[in-house]
Design a protein that fits this description.
Layout lengths: L11 H14 L5 E5 L10 E5 L5 H9 L5 E5 L5 H9 L3 E3 L6 H12 L3 E4 L16 H9 L2 E8 L17 E6 L10 H29 L12
Parallel strand pairs: 1-7, 2-5, 2-6, 3-4, 3-5
Antiparallel strand pairs: 6-7
Amino acid sequence: MSTSGLPEGSWPWLHDIGRGIARYLYRPTYRVRTEGLGRVPRTGPVVLVANHSSMIEPQLIFGMLPRRAVFLVKDEMFTGPAGWGLRRIGQIRVTRGAPDRAALQAAVRVLRDGGMVGVFPEGTRGPGDVAQAQQGAAWLVRATGAIVLPVAVRGTLRPPGHRRHRRRFRPVVDLLVGEPFALDVGRGRTGLEEGTERLRSTLAALVDRLDRQRQDLPAKGKRNDDRG
């Protein structure tokens, strides 16, 4: 049994270096604001669900969280040196568009060892509005009894209607951690569908909350708040 919260074959020291790099990688490009990092459970199995508009959100979440996290990463990323690095820092390769039992079982082992697994329920990179969700996250919760942690990220995409204009220098990116909650996923396909819908609606509500906060607060009007 692993005590690192990572899959077998991972290098914990390299994972931690990767987190440090991700924490500061986009500082020259974005002003990153965080809220609710104190809500992240420090121990125990956690399934993190987040919206996904670009390749930047996973890296920001990975770097900003106050504990190690293993993410389900699309198999196209596991080629060449990048794929070697992803495996060594403990990320799990998943085939998109079809149930990937090997990936899910690897994630189950991490959760049963008390780790955190991150899932983007939309499945593929889309507009980040969480209009649809796949069932992997609910399945993991049902299989392990893990707590669910919703996370919303906004600001990595150019605002609608601004494609022809120069983007503002170092735009603000917000990362909002919601309240962790227990999810009772019933048996069978119906249980998965109902659990997935609750995950989807909870995450969608958090994204909507963050959108409203971004409209109400000026770019310089909110400090990072890690108190929860």
